[in-house]
Design goal:
With 526 residues, the chain is α+β, with helices and mostly antiparallel strands. The protein is 32% helix and 22% strand. The strands form 6 sheets. Strands 12-21-20-19-15-18 form a 6-stranded mixed beta sheet. The chain has a 4-stranded antiparallel beta sheet with strand order 1-8-6-3, with no helix packed on it.
Length: 526
């Protein structure tokens, strides 16, 4: 029998760490190969981590709730000597080998991302880029770099994890202009040497939005009273700052903790003085005063799915100029047909809601307005008109909004759509949704009616071109033959990317949807 360490496997998509949500085993437990031993939450989904061995768990090296970097040893097993080198442990001796397969986690996308990002790696390393030449930047930032004739691989990133921001690109362009050079070589002059810590500077020092560190390093930082996001990082992992125990000790010895505490106290004293003076200084330092005077309360880590949703919504809102169209139509015919078909569907254990009807109508409308089944390739400067109709369905869960995708929705009937929607929604709420099921969407539908909303201004699931929101069906005043009567109507809202379509196309789209849903017999012909 020999001991074998097990590292947290590659979680795919360039993900560098995950939160260890729960252990499914304990020291002394016997496990079989591929048996789930832990659940890890990434910024994408909840991932089940299987055991690569048959053997006995001898030690667990991370606690539940801790953030664990990829390749960190999370468990030790006692196994037969003949099984000491199973396929998948090559990563311990060869960093370029294939990552360990983690069940539903797909490493292929991460390898593709690495391959794409490492072009011109030598130049990026000389200019302060991430190890391996990886440059992290949004498409809009890359587009700006091209417009300003700046080689983005030579730009030092000051964003979270060394990401290149638009401000970095503009500074590089201005620096090149001032020096009279045609290439932004000046960005390399300001790059720290390899021996210097990799840090992201801010007005307050080295504060970062995101820091990677081993659980033991985080515990050390807490014991020393240090915010790990303030500690200069001497390494990087997956393009993110990586803090070691030595970094923490060096920071403490340099007086970093005391200096930070003193600065905080000074700000607090200034705020108190301002308050004593009747608040006359509130206008000059609102941020600090507000922070010092803020009431206490629970602090919840901003990470995992919640952070992913937030970052994607921010990217969408600040990248795609949204325009929202609202409308309402008489849904009496839809209500009657759905009630009739639901009885038949119940006999086959199919839960037929209004959503499958809307999916059918939306896919038909996308064929009429193809620029809404599209996305903008900023790098190439081209609009991509998709030839598949993959409809995302927004599902509210306890952990946030997930969007599973119905592939080839235009080829499916009402019953098939109803079954698939029900299955995907259940998997989403149970956190068992495969990541592949959330990829490849070309348009999204969200149902705000189930929670009582009337209208909304939904945010586009970027880089898609639009999102359609269903409101509730209920009795409202409606004009029929010049008389006001009570009719069951549905409200709808739709946001579109104004770079790809105008309001006229949005209205054309919603008119087509309404025509089909108001006379749902037409859907049979779709």
């Amino acid at each position: 029998m020999v001991e074998q360490s097990f590292e947290l496997p590659d979680l795919g998509e360039g993900i560098a760490e995950g939160e260890l949500v729960a252990w499914a085993v304990a020291p002394g437990d016997h496990v079989e190969q591929d048996q789930v031993i832990a659940e890890v939450e990434t910024d994408k989904a909840l991932v089940e981590v299987p055991s690569p061995y048959d053997g006995t768990v001898t030690e667990l090296h991370a606690e539940e709730g801790e953030m664990v970097p990829v390749d960190y040893v999370i468990a030790t097993f006692e196994i037969d000597a003949s099984d000491a080198e199973p396929a998948g442990t090559e990563a311990e001796t060869d960093e370029s080998s294939t990552p360990v397969d983690a069940g539903t986690v797909e490493a292929e996308s991460a390898e593709l991302e690495t391959a794409e990002a490492t072009e011109g790696g030598a130049e990026a390393s000389e200019a302060g880029g991430a190890p391996g030449g990886r440059v992290f930047a949004a498409p809009s930032t890359r587009s700006l770099a091209r417009d300003l004739d700046v080689d983005i691989e030579t730009v030092e990133g000051t964003g979270a994890g060394g990401r290149v921001t638009e401000s970095d690109v503009r500074r590089a362009a201005e620096s090149a202009s001032e020096s009279g050079a045609s290439e932004p070589a000046s960005g390399a002059d300001a790059t720290p040497s390899e021996a210097e810590p990799v840090v992201v500077e801010s007005a307050g020092g080295t504060k970062r939005e995101r820091t990677l560190a081993m659980p033991a390093t985080r515990r050390l930082a807490r014991e020393r009273g240090v915010d790990i996001n303030d500690v200069p990082a001497s390494e990087e992992r997956e393009g993110e700052p990586f803090v070691t125990p030595a970094d923490v000790e060096a920071y403490v010895e340099s007086g970093g903790s005391a200096a930070e505490t003193g600065a905080s106290a000074e700000r607090g004293a200034s705020a108190s003085a301002g308050a004593a003076a009747g608040g006359t200084g509130a206008g000059t330092n609102t941020g600090d005063a507000g922070a010092a005077a803020s009431p206490g309360g629970e602090r919840v880590p901003y990470r995992g799915i919640r952070r992913t949703i937030g970052e994607q919504m921010a990217q969408s809102k600040f990248t795609a100029p949204h325009v929202t169209h609202h409308d309402e139509f008489d849904a009496s015919g839809l209500v009657d047909l759905r009630a009739e078909l639901a009885e038949i569907a119940d006999e086959e254990d199919v839960n037929l809601t209004y959503l499958p009807f809307v999916v059918k109508a939306v896919t038909s409308a996308l064929k009429e307005v193809p620029y809404l089944n599209a996305s903008l390739d900023e790098e190439a400067g081209e609009i991509v008109l998709h030839d598949e109709y993959n409809i995302g369905i927004a599902v509210a869960t306890d952990d946030g909004l997930l969007v599973p995708v119905i592939k080839h929705a235009d080829r499916k009937g009402l019953k098939e759509l109803a079954r698939e929607i029900d299955e995907l929604a259940t998997q989403a709420r149970e956190r068992s949704l495969p990541r592949e099921a959330m990829r490849g969407g070309t348009f999204t539908i969200t149902n705000i009616g189930v929670i009582g909303g009337e209208y909304s201004s939904p945010i586009i699931n970027y880089p898609e071109a639009g999102i359609f929101a269903m409101g509730p069906i209920k009795k409202r005043p409606w004009v029929v033959d010049d008389e006001v009567v009570a009719r069951k109507t549905m409200t709808i809202s739709m946001s579109v990317d104004h770079r790809l379509v105008d309001g006229a196309e949005a209205a054309q789209f919603t008119n087509h949807v309404q025509t089909l849903l108001a006379d749902p017999a037409r859907l049979v012909l779709e």
